[in-house]
Amino acid sequence: KRQAEMASQICLDCGYGEEDAERVASMIRKDNFKKDEETQILEDVACLVFLDDQFEEFEKEHDEEKIVTILKKTWGKMSEKGHELALEISMSDRAKNLVTKALST
């Protein structure tokens, strides 16, 4: 919520109107993200960035059970298109195995 308020204020400070600023805030708050295509795309991007740029380091710092739980939650937030793109990400064998385990349980 705090990030949404900050982004909205930045928009206003940069000359965007109230309606645009509120739209940005709504997307960041993930209001209706499963029903709002733009918000769902933003969520997909956040999940894809995590999987592509942060996951391999993150998984080294946590136990397997926690990683599998996080992957299940991440997967549940994504659209079908997001799932397709996620499966195309190049990962280490260990990371791939964790993703496979999360998707099969």
Structure in words:
This protein is mostly helical. It is 78% helix and 0% strand. It has helices spanning 2-13, 18-29, 37-60, 64-77, 80-87, 93-104.
Keywords:
mainly alpha; 105 residues; single chain
| Total count of helical runs of at least 4 residues | 6
Secondary structure category: mainly alpha
Q: What is the strand tally?
A: 0
As residue ranges, the low-confidence spans are none
Summarize the structure.
The chain is 78% helix and 0% strand. It is mainly α. The protein starts with a helix and ends with a helix.
Layout of secondary structure:
Elements: H1 2-13, H2 18-29, H3 37-60, H4 64-77, H5 80-87, H6 93-104
Helix pairs in contact: 1-2, 3-4, 3-5, 4-6
